[in-house]
């Protein structure tokens, strides 16, 4: 049975089913790039263009559903990012990134979606403008390779093409040319319809972690120990995962340190001291070349990156383990915890969740 966002894809029905679709009617766009008007009009035109595209109709049924859902959601967060600059000029900086968060939340909380399908749709929303603007990026090849690890670049180009077709503007031909150049770059980098491959996991990590990294460089694997960096929202089962590991692996737990000093998770100053104590404990293990588990939520890339940089300083191999349970099970587990996290806090954290990606560490495991 294929996953579907909805069985009824009629636009009027979509507006009745989803408040976020209704909201599109009230979000206007830049008059030069979108003469057609609101996000709702544009999105309808995109969906119509998609369903007329021969490449789309040739896709397997499940991929059609994935691409259709991404097309519906691709501009969902223009509602929160659009700024009227005057004179018909409307900007929506960051709408793709915020749209990724919203797509993830909707497909996790409201419409239960298999993890890999959800993350593919979220990635399509995040990168939907990349085929058109990639050559304007600081490092287009690295950005392309990053995207290819998350999403099929063929689907990404299809989405970009219908995003262009589903609008009224004077520079359509230039935008279409940019999309064709994107495909050429994908083929050149051997990531058209597949992830860019690397000789080793370490080579992949080194490339993404080094600003001017050479894409085909193969570093020596000379690790002194392995650090397991857990990632997951509160109540997902990180402690349960730890119990499946050998008992002699040390665990650094931020929650345990907070409880030791009776520190509230909302006390920023005190939590800064908690993190510093945890880092010092980590350094003591790293100096002894002793592997350990870092047990904390680590739900943002920035948070994980700071820790990974610390571990790398001591020559550690870093393995991220992302842990997730279905929404209802997650909420139930949280309610049954000895130290329950308020529901409102969980909602906020879910809305900002950044699922770890393959380029972030030497190894990334999804326990979902």
UniProtKB/TrEMBL annotation:
Name assigned to this protein: HD domain-containing protein
Domain HD: residue ranges: 40-135
Source organism superkingdom: Bacteria
The entry's keywords: Nucleotide-binding
InterPro entries: HD/PDEase_dom, HD_domain, P-loop_NTPase, tRNA_CCA-adding_enzyme
Keyword Ribosomal protein attributed: no
Gene3D superfamilies from the UniProt entry: cca-adding enzyme, domain 2, P-loop containing nucleotide triphosphate hydrolases
A Gene Ontology molecular function term of the record: nucleotide binding
